[in-house]
Design a protein that fits this description.
It is a single chain. The chain is of the alpha/beta class and 244 residues long. It is 38% helix and 17% strand. It has helices at residues 3-32, 47-58, 75-81, 100-106, 151-154, 156-161, 180-190, 207-221, and strands spanning 35-40, 64-70, 87-91, 117-121, 138-144, 164-168, 196-198, 240-243. It has an 8-stranded parallel beta sheet with strand order 7-6-5-1-4-2-3-8, with helices on both faces.
C-alpha cells in the first residue's frame, strides 16, 4: 500500500465517522425543533458582520444562538455576544474546518429545545468545510463582490454542497466594478438553478429577504410549531471556548 493510498483511506474513514455524528446531530436538532444554519466562506467575505446583523434581527422575535469557528482567538464570540444571544467559540487550532464532533462538544449544556435557530459559522475556508456535514438544515456559502466574479468556478465543491449562495458586500459593488452578470454565470456553470441572494449587512440591502428565507425554512421544517420564541431567553454566553 502506498502512502497516498493510505492517506485516502484515512480521510475516507474520518469523513464516514463525521457523517455518523452529523446524522445523530441532525436527529437531535429535529427532535428539539431547532433550525440549524451553517455559514461557509473564505476569510473576509463578511460572514461575521452578516451573522451579527442576523442575530440582532432574529433575536428580537426568536430564540437564537450561535457557534463560531476560528483557528484561534475568541474575538468573534465576544463581538457577536453584544447582540444579546448565547454565543460559543470553537477554536480549532491547526484544523481548517469544523467537524460534527466539535459541534457536539460545543453544545454541551445547552438546552436545544429552547432554541428556534442555531447558527454555525465555520472557519474561513472554501475547501475543507465543503465535505464535512455538521448536521445543519441549511448550508449557506458566501462570496463577496470584492473576491471576484469567478469564485464559484474556483471552488465548485462548496457551491455544490450548499443550499443557498449569498453575494455579500453589495455596497462595494460599484467601487470594485463588480460584474454581476458574470458572477451569476459563474454560479450557474457549477450549480445550475442555485438560489442566490444579494445582501449588504452594512447598508441593509437584501437583509429582509435573507431573514425571511430563514423564517420560511424553519416553518417548512416545523410547520406545527409557533413562529415566535417563548418569553424566557437563555442566559447569554460569550467567549466560551471549545477547543478542537
Amino acid at each position: 500500500m502506498t502512502v497516498e493510498t493510505r492517506l485516502v483511506q484515512v480521510r475516507t474513514q474520518v469523513l464516514k465517522q463525521n457523517d455518523v455524528v452529523a446524522r445523530e446531530l441532525r436527529t437531535q436538532f429535529h427532535e428539539a425543533g431547532v433550525c440549524v444554519v451553517s455559514l461557509v466562506s473564505s476569510p473576509g467575505s463578511g460572514k461575521t458582520k452578516l451573522l451579527e446583523e442576523t442575530l440582532s434581527t432574529l433575536g428580537a422575535s426568536h430564540q437564537v444562538a450561535a457557534l463560531v469557528g476560528d483557528l484561534a482567538t475568541e474575538n468573534d464570540a465576544r463581538r457577536l455576544s453584544k447582540t444579546g444571544v448565547p454565543v460559543r467559540q470553537i477554536t480549532t487550532g491547526t484544523v481548517c474546518h469544523l467537524e460534527a464532533e466539535m459541534v457536539r462538544q460545543a453544545l454541551a449544556g445547552w438546552d436545544l429545545e429552547t432554541l428556534d435557530f442555531l447558527f454555525i459559522e465555520n472557519v474561513g475556508n472554501l475547501v475543507c468545510p465543503a465535505t464535512y456535514d455538521l448536521g445543519e438544515d441549511l448550508r449557506v456559502v458566501l462570496f463577496s463582490v470584492t473576491e471576484g466574479e469567478d469564485k464559484p468556478q474556483k471552488y465548485p465543491t462548496v457551491f455544490n454542497t450548499a443550499d443557498l449562495a449569498l453575494l455579500t458586500k453589495l455596497d462595494l459593488a460599484e467601487a470594485v466594478e463588480f460584474d454581476r452578470a458574470a458572477a451569476y454565470r459563474s454560479v450557474e456553470s457549477v450549480r445550475p438553478g442555485m438560489p442566490v441572494l444579494e445582501v449588504s449587512a452594512k447598508s441593509g440591502v437584501g437583509m429582509e429577504q435573507w431573514v425571511g428565507r430563514l423564517r420560511d425554512r424553519r416553518r417548512q421544517l416545523f410547520p406545527g410549531q409557533a413562529v415566535t420564541r417563548s418569553e424566557e431567553k437563555p442566559a447569554t454566553e460569550a467567549g466560551t471556548s471549545a477547543s478542537g
